[in-house]
Amino acid sequence: MDARTIRSRIWLALAGLALLLAAPAMAQTPARGAALPVPNVNIGVQPARSPGDVSMTLQILLLLTVLTLAPSILMMMTSFTRIIIVLSFVRNALGTQQIPPNQVLTGLALFLTFFSMSSVLTRVNDRALQPYMAGRISFNRAIREGEQPIRDFMFRQTREMDLALFIKMSNTPRPRTRAEVPTLVLIPSFIISELKTAFAIGLKIYLPFLVIDMVVASVLMSMGMMMLPPMMISLPAKLLLFVMIDGWHLLARSLIGSFM
Questions:
Q1: Would you say residue 47 has pLDDT above 70?
Q2: Secondary-structure percent of the chain, ordered helix, strand, coil, rounded to 5
Q3: 3-state DSSP call for residue 133?
Q4: CA 145 – CA 143 distance, rounded (Å)
């Protein structure tokens, strides 16, 4: 049996197998002239039939807006700003370039933020979210109740001089109580206070590692080793110091403690 005959039989076998597989589908094919079922999708806008429909639509729109601004809210109204800046200072002070990577630092900052804000989030859940979902309070009251724990947290971390600056720049009457301070004035005051605090902590962390760099550079110059980069000696020394003092433990404890 030659090769041509073998190829012909193989093709015949494949054709027969294809017919067998297609037979059930062909049996289910509608007769000629019958309409094929085509799915129909209707997308439209219907008028609201009750005030509750309008309220629900506005709530959904507000929820989508909050979800869009969620990254900014997380970064600017929580402890995230201080934590991520301090962690970046630590990496720069160690001189390890991209180690830990940005993803690791961001993830660590997020979980430290959730940990430090746990009491605030619990109060928001107990006072606003759960009562609203149970139907005991209205949407507007839930917003007010949920806003108060976050405002209390920001007031504790905001310096009076920063708050006074934005109150003066907003041309609003001098508030007599914290309740009279607008949230739009409190948020930028909290942000610049967090930036100052984060830079102050970062500077204190940076100084010991800067001393190590200066000592290593002086020793190499005194030994006449001009061609040896000081970073090759100072980097292992800084890493050894950071590991020996359990730097990540101390750093996490200090950052969480700074919000208590």
A1: no
A2: 75, 0, 25
A3: helix
A4: 6
Question: How much is the pLDDT for 175?
Answer: 80
Q: Give the integer Cα–Cα distance in Å for 155 and 157.
A: 5
Torsion of CA 234, 238, 239, 245, to 10 degrees: 160
Three-class SS state of 94: helix
Tokens of 79: 């402890």
pLDDT of residue 15: 56
Identity at 57, one-letter amino acid code: T
* Closest C-alpha to 252, from 213, 184, 208, 201: 201
**Cβ neighbours, 10 Å, residue 130:** 13
- What is d(CA 81, CA 109) in angstroms, rounded to the nearest whole number? 9
From the list 29, 39, 113, the residue with the least C-alpha distance to 79 is 113
Gap between the Cα atoms of 101 and 17, Å rounded: 55
Query: Residues of 175-199 as b/e, b for ≥16 C-beta within 10 angstroms?
Result: eeeeeebeeebbbbbbbbbbeebbe
Q: Which of 80, 112, 68 is closest to 191 using CA atoms? A: 80
pLDDT tens, residue by residue, 135-179: 788 877 887 888 888 888 888 888 888 888 888 888 877 888 888
CB–CB of 142/149 below 8 Å? no
Please tell me whether residue 77 adopts helix, strand or coil conformation. coil
